[in-house]
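Form P-L/3: holo structure prediction, ligand zinc ion.
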Amino acid sequence: MIRLAVILIADQFRYDYLTLLDQKFLNSSFVYTNCHHKHIPTFTAVGHATISTGVPPRIHGIISNFPSVEDPKFGKSPRRLRYPTVGDEIKLKYPESKVVSISLKDRSAIFSGGFLADVVLWLEDGKLTTSRYYRKPEWLDEINGKYSLKDEFFEGNRFLLEVFKEVLRREGLGKDTFPDLAILSLSSLDLVGHKYGPNSDEVKRVVKQVDTVIREILRFLDKEVGKGNYILIFTSDHGVAPIPKNFGGYVDEEKLGEEIREILGMDVRISYPWVFLNREEASAKKTIKEYLLGKEWIFRVYTDEEVLSLNPKDFVDSLVINGFDGSADLVFIAKPYWVVGYTRGTTHGSPYSYDTHVPLVVYGLKKGKSQEGCYITKVAEILREAFNLP
Ligand SMILES: [Zn+2]
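OUTPUT (holo model):
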């Protein structure tokens, strides 16, 4: 059995960015060319939880970025997650195994690691930190003294690479016969992509950095763990929409909430694509639905009851079915190229392929390519098989 699996998640890495990577890496891997996040919304917390658990948001319960990791008892924790991660399963089956998860973002690190991870680190006020939920590594202060991050946009990848190698070394991952799991989620591309858009030179520059990170991690693993003893899975939590120009536009989520509160007199909370009513009334849902359908940018609106009878063969409906966990009162979907929640730059979250289609590259098993459609839950499936998990 392999000694170590590494999941490398590049936040907001759209499938087409693969052309900018070292083709040698792709040629020596197994590439799933048609792998998607088949749920809405295509956001960071939702995507990471789906990758780590292998079940859709409908089941794991992480349906938005906020709230996601907040915890009154521990500050931050995975308590909202309703399904164990693969890391948890490894720890249950092999208690001597180690699970490590690192990112600039708390939600990426926490939902990748799960409940039983040994080390879960993210960045807060320029320092690596963890919460009272997890063990505080005895070397954390030392590492914080050694590495610092000034520019999360363009220095974040280099910073995380150095920290990742150091943590793997200090925790001895891949050094014994108990299988270990390490997840590194590179956040910088997401920050840069939101601001500059997918067609910018800034995004290209950071994608090239991701390429360097992959190459350096492989070199590190060859040396420290040995070829054949590890696998590396490269993927992403979601893609990104083009910056709206002559098509599409911006939908201001906050303004929309204000409008509904003021014009319709309904107390709502909007977190795309969800509408939460503070008081549930069937007539209120109908009124809000009609109001939303009057917007030029709206594609579809469903009440919670309507979600129960959607058509799984329709591509938008099927993504709504996978994403809806029963808590929202309405679901609304904007037309393609309309970005919701941002008033400049761009974002993600939609059911369209620019947001759902991501790379899934598996290095260390067989080589080849599959063009068959696949759900990103495939990552957990591959790991369960590699680790002999039930
Ligand atoms: Zn983002």
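COMMENT: Residues 4-241+350-386 form a domain with the Alkaline Phosphatase, subunit A fold (CATH 3.40.720.10).
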